[in-house]
Amino acid sequence: MIRDEDYKRAQEEWVSNCTGGSIQEILAVCSSLITSHLLWSVLNKRDFIPVNGFWIQLIIYIVPVMANQTVLADHALLVSVGIFSLAILVSLSTSPSSKDSKDATSQTGYKPYLTVYRAGIMMVTCIAILAVDFPIFPRRFAKVETFGTSLMDVGVGAVVFSSGIVSSRAYLYQKPGETKIRALSNAIRSALPILTLGFLRLVLTKGVDYQQHSSEYGLHWNFFVTLGFLPPFVTLASFLYQWIPFSILGLATAMGYQLALYQGLQHWILDAPRVDLISANKEGICSFVGYLAVFLLGLDSGTVVFRKSLDDTLESKLLGLTKAPKIKQEAAQLTLRTIFLWSVLAGWRLLGENSEFFEVSRRMANLPYVIWVVAFSLTLLASLVWIECFIPCAGRGPELLDAVNINGLLTFLWANILTGLVNLSMRTLYASTITSLSVCFGYMMVVSLIPWVLWRQFGIRIKL
Fold first, then answer.
1. Contact 11/5 with Cβ under 8 angstroms?
2. How does DSSP classify residue 120?
3. How many Å apart are CA 160 and CA 188, to the nearest integer?
4. From the centroid of its chain, how far is CA 162?
5. Sign of the dihedral defined by the CA atoms of residues 174, 179, 183, 189, in that order
6. Does the keyword Endoplasmic reticulum apply (predicted)?
7. Residue 207 phi/psi, 5° resolution?
8. What distance lies between CA 30 and its chain's CA centroid?
9. Quick one: pLDDT at residue 75?
10. Alpha helix positions (H), 261-364
11. pTM value?
């Protein structure tokens, strides 16, 4: 029998000193979100089988990406190829139904592809925060210690980016007469509940002596605190939006922060002792600047998604798409951004191939990390937009993902609570493959069921 203190130490060592994996493999793991949505869209258009139930959508969207993060991690690309092949087979062997083929965007202004992207990222993140404690989760997917790329590293950044996208509506269509003081006051008020969750998480984890990896955010900081501080700081940055685009604000923030890292901040973050409250939470405080840049770049992408017309934009004029449907312009412009950022990241890493200064670091949320997260997120988003270009989606899209999206923060909170309960009730590190898969599947079923019941059955939307 292993003592509780020894097991806690073993858990901390399990998630420490990880070096990550390749960017290509991370894309392969998450590509099942794209092919799963393609399959759902084809099935929905063909009336092949009922696709709006809880269980069928759990199987189509959740099971593949969970398998890719665990037992099929070495064959993730084959999973996506299999789902894609199935979608093509169904498309070729059946005839489209007589459903109204107009897309939801033209009818209601709702964007199903954005729901799939946001809820899909949330599901990937929720799977990882529990699965990482089981031996079926590859170590290369766990958060890296300092430099490198991993699935969990990009997941937290993608959540911030997706929040930036949906927040852009507030800045595109600001209420007339709203003063800067009122806007800042509203931002602070919206931040307080999330900061409270961050404080409660700290108290609870300390109270039950839950394992903690201090180099992730520090001794007291956590991801909820990062999310909580974003609204007021973004509001302050948005005061410059009428003169400076969000893209410039985001890149300037990331580049200024990278310069500070080069001038000595990186050495302080990695090597300084934790002697006071600031140094005790140096990772969380400093990485917040990088997440702020990610959020600002999300706002910039959101202006493409939510602007009423893109006909007069430079990108549409250069691509000759001024007369094309707006969704096609969205797909093209997001793809253009994606190609540009992947090129910048490749050039940056090639430039400093043997220098840590040019490496991706989630721990510091440096410039390479910001570019990688945004490029990754735009790859998924642009792919989903292209699917909707060719297979318009009527209504609000997949009902399960719609429910998760509606109660996104609650879903994430619920997943964190369940993760803690599972870890306190069993020795996850020593679970067999069957036990690990069973627990992870049951956990994802419960995580998905709560927002489904709240929204689909009772119409409840809890805005934290």
1. no
2. H
3. 17
4. 6
5. negative
6. yes
7. -65, -35
8. 11
9. 97
10. 266-271, 277-280, 282-306, 314-319, 326-351
11. 0.93
